[in-house]
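Open question from group meeting: does this chain pack into something compact, or does most of it stay loose? Before anyone orders reagents, we agreed to write out a predicted structure and look at it together. Recording both the input and the output here so the notebook holds the full record.
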Amino acid sequence: MRKKLVSLIFLIFFCKQEDLKIKKIELCEYFNSSGECKKELSEFHTYNFVIKEKKITTWEELANSMYFHSRETPGFIIRFNRSFTAEEKIDFKRKYNAEYSFSSVEGKMEGFEIGENWIGSFQYLGSIIKQRQKKFKLLEKKISKNLFPADLNMKFQINEFEGEIKTNINLIIE
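Structure tokens returned:
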């Protein structure tokens, strides 16, 4: 019994855990709470948005309709080489930051989830469009096709880890 206790103490205090490293960053539109990407996002992604109501004519109406009804959520998952320690998980929850830039507008990515060895971020496409059009005072203007296709750059920073992932999105409005 004493040998087992000494061995356990030795393992706890003298075994060094593998350094935490980013294994992969992947584009993902929808991921679940287990970190599985349920709807992949490609490097060149086209969203088809069908307007069923005739009253959607302005950018604000379109952005709101997309946010509340179609709920497209471009984002990404950062996969690490090992499970997080309890301390790392707490630290990551406090310090993690993800942002996007889209057609001359920057914003914070609102969606955030952390798993055993992954972190995911996303932002609603309707919110991204609304933020962009609001900045340029175009919310009340009639919808036009000149905004798309456009690059969506997403970046993250947490402690010593930082990175960026990009996609080019197109929106087809029918």
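Observations to bring back to the group:
The two ends are 73 Å apart (CA to CA).
The chain has a mean pLDDT of 89.
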